[in-house]
Design a protein that fits this description.
406 residues, alpha/beta, five-stranded parallel beta sheet, 14 helices
Length: 406
């Protein structure tokens, strides 16, 4: 029996449906948006899909809200764990809305796959220094103090659990706002009469991927310059920054470097049905077509003197590409065995746990930003912020569609 995900007509239908949805949203965003659309019905009257729920328990204030307290929360509100690239990608629309409305941005990366041993820890604070409001352009809370923060009600957002000051944990009073309405609110920059806004990943990811600076859709939610300001304001903690500098100076500083990210896939379609539509490249493609494109581009720009920096989820890819290039560098990191699925869907088997995996991913992203050219080979959020932090003058970034045309 043929799987629907392998059926050409089914894949075409999915792509066409998505394209029509994006175009319809773009058309609606050109029309004036009024908050009266919210007031016409009780908040949360429309029920969003089942994935729209909180991963963490939030503390809420009891009684009347305090004037002036207004927040937007960037969190992994989703039923599936999201990787580091996805967390960074969906940060963009939340940051822009905070800036447009004068809200405090809360970056809540608790309850993620990388800190399962300590789920109350905010992964953002383990990777980055506290954001500087003068550089970021907004006031930001991004550390473990979120555990004790009392959010003002009413809250515009998803289903989930709220802990009242009395210590009683209640279900969220609303069933969850419709995903399309939340998208319009965030994209429009129109403020709402709710002191706390919690967009789901389905809202912010859609906006970042389609209406961000790399999405080429209009009207843009985030410009290239705005994305640069956001992502360049995020400073790695000193110990991780030192590791980036050390590796770069030892292996990448003496020649032009072409960065390549290859996600071969570890059978993730078995565990995540929505990944069955993802185009996982074969080794034949990697050592054939991809290698030829890199060589052609490198010969045109750098001649014969260049290196390839490889980021990949597979030791098989590394071994295959080592035979194709005389000068290839890659960090010696732990990678899951083939066909195991995405590692953060399971228990990490590395000695340092999931945090080490997050650090490795972040260091690879930072090293890609130090390359002269970067090639992405599949549709993935990994390194989606890299174009905005690339350091070298004239450095170029090719997404998976642009890579296919090189």
């Amino acid at each position: 029996m043929t799987s629907p995900s392998n059926n050409t007509f089914y894949r075409f239908y999915r792509a066409l449906k998505n394209e029509c949805g994006v175009r319809l949203f773009s058309w609606r965003m050109r029309k004036p948006f009024s908050t009266s659309e919210l007031r016409s019905q009780p908040a949360g009257a429309e029920i969003e899909a089942a994935f729209f729920r909180l991963r963490n328990v939030y503390q809420v204030q009891h009684g009347k809200r305090i004037s002036g307290e207004r927040y937007i929360i960037s969190a992994d509100i989703n039923d599936l764990f999201s990787g580091l690239g996805c967390c960074l990608l969906m940060l963009g629309p939340c940051w822009k809305y905070a800036r447009e409305t004068g809200r405090t941005l809360i970056i809540d990366w608790r309850g993620n796959p990388y800190t399962r041993r300590e789920p109350h820890k905010n992964l953002f604070a383990l990777l980055f220094e506290p954001p500087d409001p003068s550089e970021m352009g907004v006031t930001c809370i991004a550390d473990d103090s979120i555990n004790d923060l009392r959010l003002p009600q009413p809250i515009l957002g998803p289903r989930g659990l709220l802990a009242h000051e009395s210590g009683i944990v209640d279900a969220f009073p609303a069933t969850g706002i419709d995903v399309n309405l939340m998208r319009r609110i965030i994209a429009s920059g129109v403020d709402v009469d709710f002191p706390t806004v919690m967009p789901s990943l389905q809202s912010t990811y859609f906006l970042a991927a389609n209406f961000g600076p790399s999405g080429f859709r209009k009207p843009a939610v985030l410009s290239f310059g705005e994305a640069q300001r956001l992502y360049r304001s995020l400073k790695l903690r000193p110990q991780w920054a030192a590791m980036v500098t050390s590796f770069y100076e030892a292996h990448m500083a003496d020649q032009p470097v072409i960065g390549v990210h290859v996600r071969l896939g570890n059978g993730e379609g078995k565990y995540r049905s929505h990944f069955r539509q993802r185009d996982i490249r074969s080794l034949d493609f990697i050592v054939g077509t991809l290698t030829a494109r890199i060589r052609r581009y490198a010969h045109t720009r750098y001649g014969k003197r260049y290196k390839v920096f490889l980021c990949t989820d597979s030791d098989e890819v590394l071994r295959a590409m080592e035979h194709c290039f005389g000068s290839i560098v890659s960090r010696n990191i732990w990678r899951p065995a083939p066909d195991e699925g995405m590692d953060f869907d399971h228990a990490y088997k590395r000695a340092d746990g999931g945090l080490g995996a997050a650090v490795d991913a972040m260091i690879d992203m930072q090293l890609l930003a130090k390359c002269d050219a970067v090639f992405m080979t599949s549709l993935t959020a990994f390194a989606s912020h890299v174009p905005f932090i690339m350091e070298k003058p004239g450095a170029v970034f090719f997404d998976h569609k642009q890579t296919a045309k090189v």
